[in-house]
Design brief:
The protein is an alpha/beta fold. The chain is 37% helix and 21% strand. It has 6 helices and 7 strands; from the N terminus they run E-H-E-E-E-H-E-E-H-E-H-H-H.
Length: 195
């Protein structure tokens, strides 16, 4: 089972008050994926909500997980999920917001540091490795002198919300492409599609 199963974690903060925040875009992508799989999130003993399914009959199994913790302490649930499903970090895809990428753009990568992202920082500490795949969903930089911490905890602007469904769909496509075709093929598709 391990060879065909991927753990896909969407980062964000719990509760309806955070649901529309830029920081929760990872969980928004997971909602899109769950809709595609006709799967529902259920409470799981790993301190996360989990939905499972396949994108097509013989396709890889996706375990979609949203930690029940706040973003900055995502590592514990992610480590618990990998243990529960007996998966190595190489079968983990983390979907998260990225300030250093323009809004409505994606970057896919394997490994590396946290780049100042506290959710990724905590996962790196919990797993003691950076050897996992990241789907980095661009949210852009804050305007003017607005602190980044305030910017990520604000909802998307009205103009952004018009484009957001397409951005979420692209990110969900990227997750499916990584699981089905591998990271390199997915990078060729999604990096070259953007300016």
């Amino acid at each position: 089972m391990e060879q065909e199963t991927w753990l896909v974690v969407g980062l964000g903060n719990p509760g309806s008050g955070y649901a529309g925040n830029r920081h929760n875009v990872g969980q928004m992508v997971l909602a899109e994926l769950a809709d595609r799989l006709s799967a529902s999130f259920r409470s799981h003993r790993t301190n996360a909500s989990v939905a499972e399914g396949r994108t097509y009959a013989a396709g890889p199994k996706l375990v979609l997980a949203k930690p029940n913790t706040f973003m900055n302490v995502s590592g514990g649930p992610v480590a618990n999920l990998l243990r529960f499903y007996s998966l190595p970090p190489e079968r983990l895809i983390v979907v998260h917001d990225e300030l250093d990428i323009p809004f409505d753009s994606l970057k896919l990568k394997f490994g590396g540091g946290h780049g100042g992202h506290n959710g990724i920082r905590d996962i790196l500490a919990a797993l003691d490795t950076g050897d996992f795949t990241r789907v980095r969903v661009g949210i852009g930089r804050p305007p003017g002198r607005q602190p980044a911490a305030d910017f990520v905890l604000r909802d998307f602007a009205a103009a952004e919300r018009q484009v957001l469904p397409s951005a979420l769909s692209d990110a969900a496509d990227a997750v499916e492409a990584i699981a089905a075709d591998g990271l390199t093929a997915a990078q060729l598709r999604f990096h070259t599609a953007r300016s």
